Amino acid sequence: DHTLLQAIARVNRPYENEAQEMVKPHGFVLDFVGIFDKLEKALAFDSDEINAIVKDLKLLKVLFKNKMASKALDYLGLIERNFNDKDVDTLIEHFRDPERRKEFFKEYKEIEMLYEIISPDAFLRPFIGDYGTLSAIYQIVRKAYTRTVMVDREFQAKTNNLVQQQVGSYGVGGLGEIVAIDGNTIELIKNKSGGDGTKVINLIKSIEKLAEEGSDDPYLIAMAERARAVQESFEERQTSTAEALADLLREVEGNETRKKEQAEKSFDGLTYFVYRSLLDAKIQNAESVSRKIRHAFTEFPNWKRSENAIRELRKKVTFAIFAETDDLNRVTAMVDELFTLLEKADRI
């Protein structure tokens, strides 16, 4: 019985790699000789102890069937039109609440795990359509509300194959679409098909993508922060879908205005952000000070990797502003805000 116990333990050993989003929650034993029929005798344990470590596939099939007939039905009822724009918007609206999403993700992952264990099996044939639909719902909700979705690791292997075969025909490509943030964005969004919920999600992801690509531009980083604040307010139902969309379109409009002013002064993103911050703080000679600060950054190109470099850089930035005002607390707050934003660029 030691050898048998050791085999079961090794097969059942869980594995998890958070970085790669890989999870092995269970083992699978194929009993060729029928030893599991008399497992209590083989291991000299009582049935309760055996049931704690080994589940018969028949029991898992019953559990899968029960979950598909109860919990899953509530989610399947959200789809009325084969995943058209209206259905996608319904899902975005229904799952705005993070707790509701958390509950759905937990339920889905339990069903997915059972499917992965049981498949392939003729028992699953009556459930394939509904399970495929449930997987499509999961894919849409994850795509809408998760910042980074590793598509190839989103599902376990067998489910992924099913999704590729089945979900591809549902036509849900509009969600997660990255739109260019420029002078045409507002008109493009207004004329685009799909509900406002989808537009809100797509705009937030597009602004985040823009900030990621322009990670040396504090204005874009701050813009992405504000977009995330809109998303949080949207998810917590503090703002309506229409209000969230209007807020995001104002961000796009504000970005176009600043691009024109930035071009007129021949500033790069960093210099313009410092310039605007100085103007807002009513610091004298804002243009001259912002150019000095830009020059300081060129002197210390490795400031993100060197403690000594960032210390010297912060000192130069502080002195450049302090030369125009004797309010040290205000200067310190401005310098902290600038470097906090630049450090956030690595986490976008």
Secondary structure class reads mainly alpha
C-alpha geometry = elongated
- SSE run: HEEHHHHHHHHHHHHHHHH
Helix content: 55-70%
Cα-atom radius of gyration: 28 Å
Q: Which stretches of 5+ consecutive residues score pLDDT under 50?
A: none
Mean pLDDT: 83
Question: How many runs of DSSP E, i.e. beta strands?
Answer: 2
Number of helices: 17
How many domain regions?
4
Give the distance, in angstroms, between the N- and C-terminal Cα atoms.
53 Å
The biggest sheet, with number of strands, parallel, antiparallel or mixed sense and barrel status, is: 2 strands, antiparallel
Proportion of beta-strand residues = under 5%
| Order of strands, widest sheet | 1-2
Description of the molecule:
This protein has 348 residues and is mainly alpha-helical. It folds into 4 domains: 1-54, no CATH class; 57-175; 185-264, no CATH class; 269-347, no CATH class. Helix content is 65%, strand content 2%. The chain contains 17 helices and 2 strands. A hairpin with a 4-residue loop joins strand 1 (15-17) and strand 2 (22-24). Helix 11 packs parallel to helix 13 and helix 16 packs across helix 17. The longest helix has 24 residues, at 241-264.
